[in-house]
């Protein structure tokens, strides 16, 4: 194990042999390296001692943490950049990766683009995998994961596993946290996508500048210099990403509605059973049909089409097989009932921009006399600045609003609701997400549309350190059938 970022602080054997690596002291096995990524002085020593009791051979930590360790620990490795060091070591224990890795970053759209691309690959009989918010998917495997982007140890283990299974195509979501924390620094990325940037995660990044800088790492530092970038040019930050790519001589292609886009959406016709889209690339127009309705969904699909093409598929073969591609789980998903007198959608929209786009998209479907209803809340212990913005968006774009609980976590749920409500005069403040959904459905009239936003695919609700089973779609179906089925 040689790396200028990792130095031997103390050892009882110059040829230190290690059997693996883990950053979880409870999962250590005999001969492994225990990596201490974070923790206070008191906890670090406890975790390290626990790891050595289970058979750890050595510890990897920050140089400043060495004095916190028990003096009897014989093998200590140190690093000034512990997260990069862990990624490096993990890549050595799990050295193999798929040949074609695409990474997608941006505030909104990552999950949709990843899953659209995965579906395109499947429809064209390509052995592929998808890592992201909805878990790990390939062949008959569908594993849920806790993080949008895995920690480097588990990530490299999974990459190695894909290679062993002869899966050479992978699309993965690259979250801003993961990029900032060096989780992807040893992943060989050939294709990178930038979707957009709007307010989110400022509890972590502190400001939009730092948030954007974390995204730029994918293009400045991680994308192969001979790789390809695909950039949404409708977002102002997309222009900045293109400049970065041009300055670094990275091939790039833009997409969106603007005239200067390499792949430009010319026309969207929303018909009764499908949507017809016309796009232009160079001097050629392409027309395709899909089941998507929102402008942003069609932009996401176009990004996946471009990626599939750059990964080797002919454009006509792609377009022939996308007619039945559906929204990703929990993304502007319509819940179907036998009785269709009203329409109910669920969406993961938990940022101001995502909420606005979803409401605007559903307004396109409203009949003149119908209303657009909204149920939503904001998460606790996260960026509080979003609450004012989302309250104002709800006030402007919905006809009736029911403000309720999202994932309050350790924060007072009532305080969160009151804060949002103060910016949305047309709202009702309802404690309990099920009660709010029930109230909203009870108020629906013929042809009304209800959007239940914020949780989408999530099957649980975080309250005071506990995760309670909660599924927006299941609850909505249960309530609707009770109220509307005769």
State the helix count: 15
Task: Please provide the count of β strands.
Answer: 24
User: Residue-averaged pLDDT, rounded?
Assistant: 95
Distance between the termini: 69 Å
Are there runs of 5+ residues with pLDDT below 50, and where? none
So, the CATH homologous superfamily of the largest domain?
Mur-like, catalytic domain
How many discrete structural domains? 3
Structural class: alpha/beta
Question: What is the name of the CATH topology of the largest domain?
Answer: UDP-N-acetylmuramoyl-L-alanine:D-glutamate ligase
The CATH class assignment of the largest domain is Alpha Beta
**Percent helix range:** 25-40%
Key traits:
UDP-N-acetylmuramoyl-L-alanine:D-glutamate ligase; 34% helix; 3 domains; Udp-n-acetylmuramoylalanyl-d-glutamate--2,6- Diaminopimelate Ligase, Chain: A, domain 1; eleven-stranded mixed β-sheet; 486 residues; Protein-Tyrosine Phosphatase, Chain A; six-stranded mixed β-sheet; alpha/beta
Structure description:
With 486 residues, the protein is of the alpha/beta class. The protein has 3 domains: 6-82, MurE/MurF, N-terminal domain (Udp-n-acetylmuramoylalanyl-d-glutamate--2,6- Diaminopimelate Ligase, Chain: A, domain 1, 3-Layer(aba) Sandwich), CATH 3.40.1390.10; 100-319, UDP-N-acetylmuramoyl-L-alanine:D-glutamate ligase, CATH 3.40.1190; 333-484, Mur ligase, C-terminal domain (Protein-Tyrosine Phosphatase, Chain A, Alpha-Beta Complex). It has helices at residues 41-53, 82-93, 110-123, 152-164, 176-180, 202-205, 208-222, 236-247, 295-310, 315-319, 352-363, 385-397, 413-421, 433-442, 472-484; strands at residues 6-10, 20-22, 32-35, 58-62, 76-79, 100-105, 128-132, 135-138, 141-143, 169-173, 189-194, 223-232, 251-256, 263-270, 275-281, 284-290, 333-335, 343-347, 372-376, 400-403, 427-429, 449-453, 460-463, 466-469. The chain has an 11-stranded mixed sheet, sandwiched between helices. Strands 17-18-22-19-20-21 form a 6-stranded mixed sheet, sandwiched between helices. Helix 2 (82-93) runs parallel beside helix 4 (152-164) and helix 7 runs parallel beside helix 8 (236-247). The longest helix is centred in the middle third of the chain and has 16 residues, at 295-310. It is globular and about 80 Å long. It starts with 5 loop residues before the first strand and ends with a helix. 47% of the residues are buried. The model has no long low-confidence stretch (mean pLDDT 95).
């Amino acid at each position: 194990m040689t790396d200028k970022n990792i130095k031997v602080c103390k050892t009882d054997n110059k040829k230190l042999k290690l059997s693996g690596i883990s950053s979880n002291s409870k999962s250590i096995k005999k001969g492994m390296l225990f990596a201490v990524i974070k923790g206070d002085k008191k906890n670090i020593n406890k975790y390290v001692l626990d790891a050595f009791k289970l058979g750890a051979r050595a510890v990897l930590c920050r140089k400043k943490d060495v004095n916190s360790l028990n003096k009897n620990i014989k093998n200590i490795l140190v690093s000034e950049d512990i997260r990069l060091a862990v990624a490096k070591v993990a890549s050595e224990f799990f050295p193999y990766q798929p040949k074609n890795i695409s990474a997608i970053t941006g505030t909104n759209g990552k999950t949709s683009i990843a899953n659209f691309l995965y579906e395109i690959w499947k429809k064209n009989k390509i052995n592929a995998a998808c890592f992201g918010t909805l878990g790990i998917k390939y062949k008959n495997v569908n594993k849920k994961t806790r993080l949008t982007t895995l920690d480097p140890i588990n990530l490299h283990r999974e990459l190695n596993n894909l290679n062993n299974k002869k899966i050479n195509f992978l699309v993965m979501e690259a979250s801003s946290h993961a990029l900032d924390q060096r989780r992807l620094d040893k992943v060989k990325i050939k294709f990178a996508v930038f979707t957009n940037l709007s307010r989110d995660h400022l509890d972590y990044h502190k400001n939009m500048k730092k948030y954007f800088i974390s995204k730029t790492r994918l293009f400045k530092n991680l994308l192969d210099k001979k790789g390809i970038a695909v950039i949404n040019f409708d977002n102002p930050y997309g222009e900045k990403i293109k400049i970065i790519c041009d300055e670094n001589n990275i091939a790039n292609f833009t997409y969106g509605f603007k005239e200067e886009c390499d792949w430009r959406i010319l026309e969207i016709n929303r018909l009764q059973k499908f949507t017809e889209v016309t796009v232009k690339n160079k001097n050629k127009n392409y027309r395709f049909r899909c089941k998507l309705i929102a402008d942003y969904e069609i932009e996401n699909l176009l990004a996946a089409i471009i990626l599939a093409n750059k990964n080797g598929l002919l454009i006509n073969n792609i377009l022939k097989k996308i007619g039945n591609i559906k929204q990703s789980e929990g993304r502007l998903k319509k819940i179907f009932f036998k009785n269709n007198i009203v329409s109910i959608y669920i969406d993961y929209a938990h940022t101001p921009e995502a909420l606005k786009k979803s409401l605007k998209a559903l307004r396109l479907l409203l009949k003149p006399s119908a209303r657009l209803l909204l149920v939503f809340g904001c998460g606790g212990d996260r960026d509080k600045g979003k609450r004012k913005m989302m309250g104002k968006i709800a006030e402007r774009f919905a006809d009736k609003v029911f403000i309720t609980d999202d994932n309050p976590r350790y924060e007072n749920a009532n305080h969160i609701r009151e804060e949002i409500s103060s910016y949305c005069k047309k709202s009702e403040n309802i404690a309990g997400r099920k009660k709010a959904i029930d109230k909203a459905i009870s108020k629906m009239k013929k042809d009304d549309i209800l959007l239940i936003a914020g949780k989408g695919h999530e099957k649980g609700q975080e309250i005071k350190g506990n995760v309670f089973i909660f599924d927006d779609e299941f609850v909505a179906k249960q309530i609707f059938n009770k109220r509307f089925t005769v």
